[in-house]
Amino acid sequence: MKTSETEVLIVGAGPTGLVLALWLKRLGVDLKIIDKAAAPGETSRAIAVQARTLEFYRQFGIADDVLAAGIRVERLAVRTPSGTAATLKLGDFGAGLSPYPFAFALPQDIHERILIDHLEKAGAAVERRAELVGFEQDAAGVSATVMKDGETEVIRAAFLCGADGASSTVRHGLKLGFPGGTYEQCFYVADVEARNAPNGLNVCLDTHGFAIVLPVRQSGSVRLIGVVPGDHAASEAIGFETIRAEVERITGVTVKAVNWFSTYRLHHRVAEHFRVGRVFLAGDAGHIHSPAGGQGMNTGIGDAVNLGWKLAAVLGGRGDPRVLNSYEPERIVFARRLIKTTDQVFRVITSRSALVGLWRRYLLPKMIALLVANRAGARLAFRTVSQIGIAYGNSILSRGAAGRVRGGDRLPYVEGLVHVDGSAGDNFAPLCSLDWQIHVYGAASPTFRAALAATGIPIHAFAWTPAAGEVGLTRDAAYLLRPDGHVAVAIEAQDPAALLSYIEEFAIKIDTAARGPQ
Ligand SMILES: Cc1cc2nc3c(=O)[nH]c(=O)nc-3n(C[C@H](O)[C@H](O)[C@H](O)COP(=O)(O)OP(=O)(O)OC[C@H]3O[C@@H](n4cnc5c(N)ncnc54)[C@H](O)[C@@H]3O)c2cc1C
Q1: Which of 164, 194, 442, 470 would bridge with 12, disulfide CB 3.0–4.6 Å?
Q2: 439: exposed, middle or buried (C-beta count within 10 Å: 0-12, 13-18, 19+)?
Q3: Ligand 1 proximity of 173 Cβ (cutoff 6 Å)
């Protein structure tokens, strides 16, 4: 029997496992990533890549490649069988809120290939046809049993991460419940060539149901998603032809050819825990829900980033092990809230009640039109969907408030800044170090700099601009930032003692090895 050792064993090379591997690799962690599948997935599945995900990708230098492979969704239309009820020019509808203020679509198979390429360039490769079949943990590590090509290998790792999808072997191995439910209706997803493909993202509402039409690839094929209509609503065993007439009626799309068609049942579930000892769950292994809002994959990627920097800190002796205790509370709260919200939205848009059907067909389009007609509504929609509003206010790692910015918030984005070193740009640029840092918008006093010099944590001071005030930052306040761009400590005054005691409490050390985008 073969044996091997590593610091982190990642089970599952979907988007969650791949992003975790990339982040860890950038931070110099020794890892293995295994997947039981012989090859990466070849279907488009999750398409929406949210702004928060792109912000993380910018941090580790892959955002441009991802952007080059997908398309910006420029327009949202709400359609009913009588025509277009509302149109919103999306464009940069989140302008000023993120470096990526638009809606962006990239099929999951292409997305995964980009992640795999970058992982390989970083010196790690996915071990394929390698299936986790069991594991045991003790105080010092985890011993995982993996079957590969009929051979057994025991991999000893300091930590194990289950990014192994909805049927997670890791979650089962931990004997964790996956409470929630399964929706009665069956869903379809079809990637088709259309004779009259509409532009942009189209939400089609009718008394009998709903569908979404959106672009998939630059070639002009479109994705149709909806509840399986009519008498087949609870049936998974159908082909596209069975529902073609009803789908074409709801969407207004005439289908020339079907490239991919699948039906599936949706669940809404969150695991009881995301961590047991040295074993973690991330992505679909920990939470699954309806695709309403395109949140699933992006939430898994958010889990991976949150866990990645914490594992690297603890393994590298640059953070107290208690830092890892914050992973579950930070991410499970968001997952539970997300499932509640998507569940409510989903029940309304799929309800078969005649009354709700009439509301969906006649009133909902008008409500959406009103919401998106004004700039504030469009910005609210961007904030809600893009995941930039995710905050960890109740985390053990979050302290203080300065202006409207609290510990746990994602650092608000500000462009058009001048750094004290003379460079011009935005305040997210320094986050590419993937390490702790302090931001001051105004001037960092020499006493403050001197008091923190021994920590090695860089202080980025940007000349004050009203734009910083508009996003809630306070002039001359100090913001200690975590490697994932969330505020750890926000203090109105440049009080080094408050930061030093936090840095000492969590044993935070800066990584002196060269890192960041490679
Ligand atoms: C038809 C379809 C349409 C979807 N549409 C959307 C959408 O529009 N928007 C959205 O946000 N989400 C959508 N999703 C969900 C989205 O695809 C998932 O949220 C996303 O793939 C989760 O990523 P993950 O890495 O956590 O898990 P997965 O992508 O499921 O990856 C898990 C990996 O673990 C591997 N694995 C499992 N068990 C083991 C084991 N024991 N040993 C080794 N490897 C193992 C699997 O082979 C797999 O590669 C859709 C899913 C499907 C199926």
Answers
A1: 164
A2: buried
A3: no
Amino acid letter, residue 73: V
* Alpha carbons 282 and 328: distance in angstroms, whole number: 10
Backbone angles phi, psi at 399, to 5 degrees: -140, 145
297, two tokens: 């994959």
Average pLDDT in the 243-253 region?
Answer: 90
Residue-wise pLDDT tens digits, 392-414: 999 999 999 999 999 999 999 99
The closest residue, in CA terms, to atom 14 on ligand 1 is: 46
Helix segments in 98-181, DSSP class H: 108-121, 169-173
This prediction has a pTM of: 0.93
Q: Is 107 in the pocket of ligand 1 (CB under 6 A)?
A: no
50-398-498 Cα angle (round to 5): 135
Give the side-chain half-sphere CA count within 13 A for 191.
17
Contact, 506 vs 403, CB < 8 A? no
* Residues in contact with 248: Cβ distance below 8 Å, sequence separation at least 6, in sequence order: 254, 255
Is residue 162 within 6 Å of ligand 1 at its C-beta?
Answer: no
107-126 pLDDT, tens digit each: 899 999 999 999 999 999 99
Ligand 1: does its nearest atom lie under 6 Å from the Cβ of 47? yes
Ligand 1 within 6 A of CB of 164: yes
Residue ranges of the chain assigned to CATH 3.50.50.60: 2-70+106-178+271-349
Q: What is the CATH number of domain 399-505?
A: 3.40.30.120
Task: Give the integer Cα–Cα distance in Å for 108 and 260.
Answer: 14
User: Is the distance from CB of 65 to CB of 114 less than 8 angstroms?
Assistant: yes
Question: Do residues 179 and 272 make contact, with C-beta atoms less than 8 angstroms apart?
Answer: yes
Q: Which residue has the tokens 């295994």?
A: 34
Ligand 1 centre to CA of 46 (Å) is 9
- In the DSSP assignment, the letter for residue 91 is T
The CATH code of the domain at 2-70+106-178+271-349 is 3.50.50.60
Helices (H), 280-410: 296-315, 327-350, 354-358, 364-373, 375-386
Q: Is the CB of 291 under 6 A from ligand 1?
A: yes
Q: How many residues are there in the chain?
A: 518
